[in-house]
């Protein structure tokens, strides 16, 4: 493109915003990214204290081919940007009522052996299950994840039609029922069902199509970027800037500016005039610097890569909102979370890099989170990350780095966290119970006494720091009615030139999905209606 290339303003410097900036800058657009916080990364943030460095968001590296494809589009590679370490075992699981934890290896053969040891006959069932999961994943990548669903081709593709019966069955059955029909041991059902949490959902609420996730962790493998996920964010920033994008931190977008559009007065002009009163075109942004007055940024295209609820309901006037508050009132948020960051003296060999703690009645846990009235689960299934098991740079010598995630209702009224126990009482109590539970189940009797650094985060922080809808930790839940083409569209129906990227929109939640959402924006602007990944 020439010196008069269209000007793109990206709202939000999280993973989706940075990825979109890199791809569009590579296509010749003039791109500026505006991030309200001091650092980029959004949910993929980091925090340092007394020699500890904590990732404050994503901690699982799955779907490596999505990252590989993204970097290849930009003329580089994952290997050039990052050093990935394959985890073995992929994770350890502690089950309520069972003294011994189970190590899950990212290898189909070993996974089959594990399942057979826990339930005779389950190994053969798992082989069939993983074959189905791999097939569903391949179809999803080729036909659904990388499409904007803006032409009928996505639905009448020969491959989709050929497998239509199976796809309908997978969409019409929930994941829990799909698993329970094949496996009897609770431990196996929980190992296969927990990936629903990655999707901000639960096994009872997510379609069985998402059993594809089990192929990712039981066979394809779990990886970790050496140095932490902040290295991935650093890489995105560097690649985007190398392509010409300009990144602005500490700048808050307060309004998306628009100009009216004119009715064409042609056929159906009465309807068009009526619609035109509710339409506009992007003109730019109003932004506020941390230490200065508001200023106007001119733009031809705006990418809303911040939380979609915030972009729609706070940055646009009501008549121009494609997704007004009443739309959100009919939809389901994913869970909130209490995050606990601990610097611990001494070693913790009882925990793997990833450890999962599952209560016996985790169905009640999910009901507490998703049903009305909501409640904080107690005891709560939870997740613990110990990156210092793999990466010595995240903790001082002789210490361990722990990150705990306790799913709770998406309710900012639960409060905010703090440093050294200074958070709101409910948040600190949830953290204390989680520490006690890990201590008891994993046999670390003195865990609480060995904590030298502590910080908590609650749903209120997700609202204050990330403008998160309802205090959710991840985004809208991946239920049947909030998946694939039923998820929020990535283009405004009211404002020409306004697009959306990130976990709130298509294709969904997670780092790989954020990268794909960036590519979907580029495909829209290119007029590319192909269903699969773009050609490099």
UniProtKB/TrEMBL annotation:
One Gene Ontology term from the biological process aspect of the record: carotenoid biosynthetic process
Keyword terms, alphabetized: Carotenoid biosynthesis, Oxidoreductase
InterPro entries assigned to the protein according to its UniProt record, in alphabetical order: Amino_oxidase (IPR002937), Carotenoid/retinoid_OxRdtase (IPR014105), FAD/NAD-bd_sf (IPR036188)
Keyword Nucleotide-binding included in the entry's annotation: no
Protein's pathway: Carotenoid biosynthesis
Record's keyword annotation contains Protein biosynthesis: no
Name used for this protein in its record: Dehydrosqualene desaturase
Lineage, highest ranks first: Bacteria, Bacillati, Actinomycetota, Actinomycetes, Mycobacteriales
This protein's encoding gene: crtN
């Amino acid at each position: 493109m020439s010196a008069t290339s269209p000007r793109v303003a990206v709202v939000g410097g999280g993973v989706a915003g940075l990825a979109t900036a890199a791809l569009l800058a590579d296509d010749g657009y003039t791109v500026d990214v505006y991030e309200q916080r001091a650092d980029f990364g959004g949910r993929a943030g980091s925090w340092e204290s007394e020699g500890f460095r904590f990732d404050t968001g994503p901690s699982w590296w799955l779907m490596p081919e999505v990252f590989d494809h993204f970097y290849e589009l930009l003329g580089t590679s994952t290997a050039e940007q990052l050093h990935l370490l394959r985890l073995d075992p992929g994770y350890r699981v502690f089950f309520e009522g069972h003294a011994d934890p189970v190590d899950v290896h990212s290898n189909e053969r070993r996974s089959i052996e594990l399942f057979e040891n826990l339930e005779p006959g389950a190994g053969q069932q798992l082989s069939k299950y993983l074959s189905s999961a791999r097939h569903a994943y391949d179809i999803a990548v080729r036909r659904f994840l990388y499409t904007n669903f803006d032409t009928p081709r996505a639905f009448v593709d020969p491959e989709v039609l050929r497998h239509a019966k199976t796809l309908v069955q997978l969409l019409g059955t929930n994941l829990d029922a799909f698993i329970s029909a094949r496996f009897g041991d609770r431990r196996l059902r929980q190992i296969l069902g927990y990936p629903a949490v990655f999707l901000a959902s639960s096994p009872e609420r997510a379609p069985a199509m998402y059993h594809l996730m089990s192929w990712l962790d039981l066979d394809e493998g779990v990886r970790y970027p050496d140095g932490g996920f902040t290295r991935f964010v650093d890489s995105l920033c560097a690649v985007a800037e190398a392509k010409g994008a300009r990144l602005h931190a500490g700048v808050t977008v307060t309004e998306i500016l628009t100009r009216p559009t004119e009715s064409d007065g042609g056929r159906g002009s009465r309807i068009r005039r009526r619609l035109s009163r509710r339409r506009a075109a992007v003109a730019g942004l109003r932004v506020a610097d941390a230490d200065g007055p508001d200023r106007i940024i001119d733009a031809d295209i705006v990418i809303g890569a911040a939380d979609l609820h915030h972009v729609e309901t706070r940055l646009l006037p009501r008549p121009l909102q494609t997704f007004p508050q009443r739309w959100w009132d009919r939809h389901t948020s994913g869970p909130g979370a209490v995050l606990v960051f601990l610097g611990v003296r001494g070693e913790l060999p009882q925990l793997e890099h990833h450890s999962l703690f599952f209560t016996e009645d985790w169905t009640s846990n999910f009901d507490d989170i998703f049903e009305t009235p909501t409640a904080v689960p107690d005891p709560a299934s939870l997740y613990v990350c110990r990156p210092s098991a793999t990466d010595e740079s995240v903790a001082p010598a002789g210490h361990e780095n722990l990150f705990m995630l306790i799913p709770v209702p998406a309710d900012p009224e639960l409060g905010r966290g703090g440093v050294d126990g200074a958070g709101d009482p409910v948040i600190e109590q949830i953290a204390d119970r989680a520490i006690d539970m890990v201590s008891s189940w994993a046999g670390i009797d003195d865990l609480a006494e060995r904590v030298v650094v502590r910080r908590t985060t609650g749903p209120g922080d997700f609202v204050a720091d990330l403008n998160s809808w309802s205090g959710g930790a991840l985004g809208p839940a991946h239920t049947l009615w909030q998946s694939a083409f039923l998820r929020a569209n990535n283009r405004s129906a009211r404002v020409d030139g306004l697009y959306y990227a990130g976990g709130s929109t298509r294709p969904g939640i997670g780092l790989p999905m954020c990268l794909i959402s960036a590519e979907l924006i580029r495909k829209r602007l290119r007029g590319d209606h192909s269903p699969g990944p773009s050609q490099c």
